[in-house]
Amino acid sequence: MPLTLHNFLFNVYPYLCGAVFLMGSLARFDRDQYTWKSDSSQLLRARQLRWGSNLFHIGILFLFFGHTVGLLTPHVFYEWIITASNKQMLAMISGGIAGFICFIGLSMLLHRRIFDPRIRLTSHRTDLAILIILWVQLVLGLVTLPFSYAHLADATDMLILADWAQRVVTFRPDATGLLHVAWPFKVHLVLGMTIFLLFPFSRLVHVWSGFATVVYLVRPYQLVRSRKLNVPAQAQPGKKQA
């Protein structure tokens, strides 16, 4: 990969995707709230949808929070509890299991969309596109496991990827270390950022509603009226004045 393209993809592209992700989601919510939904097809082949959806959501949530915590936690915060090598092994085992579960669920959902004529007719092109992209991203994630295992002794891949991610979120981008990682990691990163780029234009925006339900659980009670109002007799309906 040319150095110029490498620097763009890993030093500039993350901020481009992040800006579109945030501003695009806000614009979608402000202008097209009626499209802010998951477009469920649960009335058709409900059993396959139930299994596929549950497996997919369980796996993808674990992977999302696992990647977030694993990449954005500095090594110094956990080195006194677990070594980098053991942490990488833990990430490989737990991430591999979650990825396989998510892969099965997503494959079932993708099968419904493609091979059921009724569901295919009611599906938007973006529905199929985002499912295919997520499926390819999962495959790439599973492909990286053997490469991670090859560097398990020193955990270099995990440390390089974490250092890059932490520099991006702290606005100190430096993709020099990524020059030395295997190609599946690089493609996995680029496709992951692209998913955030496409997020506001797909059905994935309903994820925001999922986070909103958590906020709803801890919101304060809505105070409708603090005290009983004393309405004068002459103003009360149904009463005749003397």
From TrEMBL:
TM spans, by residue? 12-29, 55-77, 89-110, 130-149, 189-218
Q: Name one GO molecular function term.
A: nitrate reductase (quinone) activity
Show the Gene3D superfamilies listed in the entry: Transmembrane di-heme cytochromes, Chain C (1.20.950.20)
Give UniProt keywords alphabetically.
Answer: Cell membrane, Electron transport, Heme, Iron, Membrane, Metal-binding, Nitrate assimilation, Oxidoreductase, Transmembrane, Transmembrane helix, Transport
Main localization category: membrane
Write down the EC number: 1.7.5.1
Domain NarG-like, residue spans = 7-227
Q: What's one Pfam family here?
A: Nitrate_red_gam
Q: Where in the cell is it found?
A: Cell membrane
Q: Which residues form a coiled coil?
A: none
* First-level EC class: oxidoreductase
| Membrane topology summary | Multi-pass membrane protein
What NCBIfam families would the database entry show?
Answer: narI
Matching entries from PANTHER family are given as: NITRATE REDUCTASE PRIVATE CHAPERONE, REDOX ENZYME MATURATION PROTEIN REMP FAMILY (PTHR30598), RESPIRATORY NITRATE REDUCTASE 1 GAMMA CHAIN (PTHR30598:SF3)
Q: What is this protein called?
A: Respiratory nitrate reductase 1 gamma chain
Organism field:
Cupriavidus laharis
Which gene produces this protein?
narI_2
